[in-house]
Write a structure and sequence with these properties.
single chain; about 290 residues
Length: about 290
């Protein structure tokens, strides 16, 4: 009898964890279409397995990214040419993003249309307002956050080697949440890594809002775990479905296909320690869900 009661108790506890996770509303804040390919399985599981919801705010106009050699044949135009790209890529890449969003279950998209200008690792021109209309982006983020009443915000880990747009977008998202009146969503920085990687992150120098809470673990969603007949299934297929929608980026996506073992998430210090239990329960539910 004790054994049966114990099993029932464990089942009820696990069910309770999953119910709490189901009500989560998530906002993804990224710079470019295809940035969400850094954590697509987590979003898929949040929405399609745990019954939550997700929206996405895109900061740039998506006019950059001229690596579509094979995609040039698919779209019938030279997507390696910057002049062509500046004209056609915004519409193409936004449509691709929305198709990728269908896979993950994203509900709403918000486009802020700041210039996708060039590759750099220095976020200061964007955060100072020299390259982006920072005031406009801040107002738009404030409006989206206030309207959405989100529980969770996911953006890219703003590590030193990252594109300046990625870092600037994450800083802007953190600052927007800090400004938000009332209940604030928990902000996580995510990315995909290989198990062979020794990647770690604690803070982007010069931007104290990016500091990670030292007492928080690095949260993980294993996308390489195999299951089903002969172990031929894994959640990497979901990531591949999402990546495949970004056809204009055929060079980058070709390299990224079926790569990465784990989606990892860092808990920013500005969240404070009170959100740790919520995130612990969320990642427990993510691990339990699906296959």
């Amino acid at each position: 009898m004790r054994s049966i009661r114990g099993i029932v108790l464990i089942f009820l506890m696990l069910a309770c964890v999953q119910v709490r996770a189901q009500s989560l509303k998530t906002l993804i804040v990224t710079a470019h279409p295809d940035d969400e390919t850094m954590f697509p399985v987590t979003v898929f599981k949040l929405v399609r397995e745990l019954g939550g919801s997700a929206d996405l705010a895109l900061v740039t106009d998506a006019s950059g990214g001229y690596n579509g050699m094979v995609a040039s044949k698919y779209y019938g135009m030279n997507l390696l040419d910057s002049a062509v790209g500046r004209r056609v890529l915004p519409a193409i890449r936004k449509k691709e993003l929305m198709k990728a969003g269908e896979v993950m279950g994203i509900t709403n998209f918000y486009f802020f249309d700041q210039v996708d200008d060039l590759y750099s690792t220095d976020p200061s021109p964007y955060l100072s307002g020299r390259r982006w209309n920072k005031d406009l982006v801040e107002r738009q983020l404030d409006e989206v956050l206030a309207k959405g009443r989100y529980d969770l915000v996911i953006c890219l880990v703003p590590s030193v080697e990252q594109h300046a747009h990625h870092k600037a977008t994450t800083v802007l998202a953190l600052r927007a949440v800090a400004r938000l009146a009332g209940k604030k969503p928990i902000v996580l920085g995510g990315r995909t890594i290989s198990r062979a990687t020794t990647f770690s992150f604690s803070e982007l120098p010069g931007y104290p809002e990016t500091k990670v809470l030292a007492s928080a673990p690095v949260y993980e969603v294993d996308v390489s775990h195999t299951f089903g007949e002969g172990g031929k299934h894994s959640y990497q297929i979901v990531a591949d479905w999402v990546k495949a929608e970004h056809k204009s980026q055929s060079g980058d996506m070709n390299v990224a296909m079926h790569r990465g073992d784990v989606e990892v998430f860092y808990y920013f210090a500005q969240n404070g320690p009170n959100g740790l239990e919520t995130i612990k329960k969320l990642f427990t539910a993510l691990k339990m869900s699906g296959f």
